[in-house]
Amino acid sequence: MRKNSFKILCFLFSLSAFAQQSKTKKEFTTNGKKITVYTTAENSNLRLASTANLSFSSAKQPLEIEASIFVEPSKKFQTFMGIGGAITDASAEVFAKLSKEKQTEFLNAYYDKEKGIGYSLLRTTIQSSDFSSGSYSYIKEEDKDLKTFSIDHDKQYRIPLIKQAIKTAGGKLTTYAAPWSPNAFMKSNKDVLKGGTLLPEYYQTWANFYVKFIKAYEKEGIPIWGTSTQNEPMAVQKWESCIYTAEEERDFIKNFLGPTLKKEQLSKVKIIAWDHNRDLMNYRANVIYTDPEASKYVWGMGFHWYENWSGGASMFDNVAKVNEAYPNKGLLFTEGCVEKFDAKKYQFWGNGERYGISIINDFNNGTAGWTDWNILLDQNGGPNHVGNFCFSPIHADTTTGELIYTPSYYYIGHFSKFIHLNAVRVSSAVSRSALLSTSFLNADGTMATVVMNQTDKDVTYNLIIAAEQAVVKIPAHAIQTLVY
């Protein structure tokens, strides 16, 4: 009898808890909501500008000749972990040349949610990359015991900028790091440049190196959320680079990096595998994730957008296929930039559209976050010690002290400014190929639907949610965020 009474009490308690939960988790509704439309468009002065306030009305069956966007809030997918960019040595060195006034403008432009576009992710490098004024190391060469380890180099430019970015963002940026190359003495080619491989006898030394870096940065008040094994592990570059086959990366994680982080009580630090282009990510996922001992240490996979260097289109579907095969693993876009800097193309609209196309597709295919490459470069697309000059969303002309905002900055902002941390992506589909779209439900109950038109004509479209709709117009070559 007592046992039955206890069961009844448990059942009643469960019902009460469920009722409370139901009250706090209200389903999304359009009732009483207005839509604020923000627009950026080519051949106009519209840049993240509020362009319309609309109301919902009763929906009717859309026609095939109409363009429509269908949002279904009850179908939820991944949780949003942020959008951001990389603070490289190059970015930090250029930032240091700006006036105090321009430095404040720049920080607000990226990291302030109200004054700017509200970046929440930050990537940085472990030792030098091509976007440094030169190659450098945290240790003296041949120091296999890491006794000379010091991040003093980073304290001159990079760490001060990271600290100011974190402060401007409200005290927190999800920060992760990646190495471009181990030291020359640890590698098969005895050079930090031009590929080479990590010699097996230095696997443990190199795993210890990550620990030294993480602890040194955390001592500076910069918590490290995660680290990737290696930036672009299949690319032999003229700059800092190191090659890992899928099997080599798997075994380094399984036998060295994962156990070393655990031993040093750094299991909280996430390990990101691959950190290279979408083309080979499925093979890398299959090799690493099907090994339980390696897989248990890996948070998920990072990927870049440069797979079209060898010809062909962006392989967006590969992200979806990794997500489909390994739904319990994370996905994070870790690098993309517009290559081959040309100052005549600062305002080339296609550069911004490249960002919009990638971000929408990557989120719709399951990525949780999206990280641009350099947040700032100079009027030459550098500094870069091997001449690999590129675009960034904002450039600084160090001869005039002025900041140059490119279309890419505004395209990124249509996502980062309106999608909040811990938002959840919901089902969003388009009926005509003229448009691209993605939607996220924020924790405060607002929906952010991003719509992109890459055609030469204005498009009028229906936004349809359940039995409600609104009719919206988007200019040619434009991006909009609808907040409702």
TrEMBL record:
Gene3D superfamilies: Glycosidases, Golgi alpha-mannosidase II. Residues 82-419 form the Glycosyl hydrolase family 30 TIM-barrel domain. Keywords: Glycosidase, Hydrolase, Signal. Residues 1-19 form the signal peptide. Residues 422-482 form the Glycosyl hydrolase family 30 beta sandwich domain. SUPFAM superfamilies: (Trans)glycosidases. It holds the Pfam family Glyco_hydro_30. Belongs to the glycosyl hydrolase 30 family. PANTHER family: GLUCOSYLCERAMIDASE, LYSOSOMAL ACID GLUCOSYLCERAMIDASE. This is Glucosylceramidase. It comes from Flavobacterium collinsii. The lineage of its organism: Bacteria, Pseudomonadati, Bacteroidota, Flavobacteriia, Flavobacteriales.
